[in-house]
Design a protein that fits this description.
The protein has five helices and five strands, in the order E-E-E-H-H-E-H-H-E-H. With about 140 residues, the protein is of the alpha/beta class. The chain has a five-stranded mixed beta sheet with strand order 3-2-1-4-5.
Length: about 140
Amino acid sequence: MEKIVMFTDGGSRGNPGPAAVGVWIETLGKKFGECIGKKTNNEAEYEALILGLQKTKVLLGKTKAKQSEIECFLDSELVVKQLTHKYKLKEERIQKYFIEIWNLMLDFGKVSFFHVPREKNKIADEMVNLALDEKEKQVSLNF
């Protein structure tokens, strides 16, 4: 089984506020960042993971994805503990993200979630900030 290593991060400037997601699929050498509107930090963390799993599936193709093990590294300890069933999901909007991730997991051979310190998630974090900075530039150019 091929192992794919992926780092994801989400953030908002304000909580809630303008938010973005960042993904670095280290094994495939691919980086993504995009704005996702007004969200909380936790929502952005979940949406980053969803984007990462979706992009990985597209890049690998359906057959290869099913034969791959995905290791997901996040700097959100809360999200990792929720996804590994150590914390309950009390908020309905977060439960919806959990279900979407659960369904995406079925597209892969195995998916694991790991917490890493923020310093070990610099590339995904950089993608979040680049997306937010770019959005701010566009907004300021429109005035």
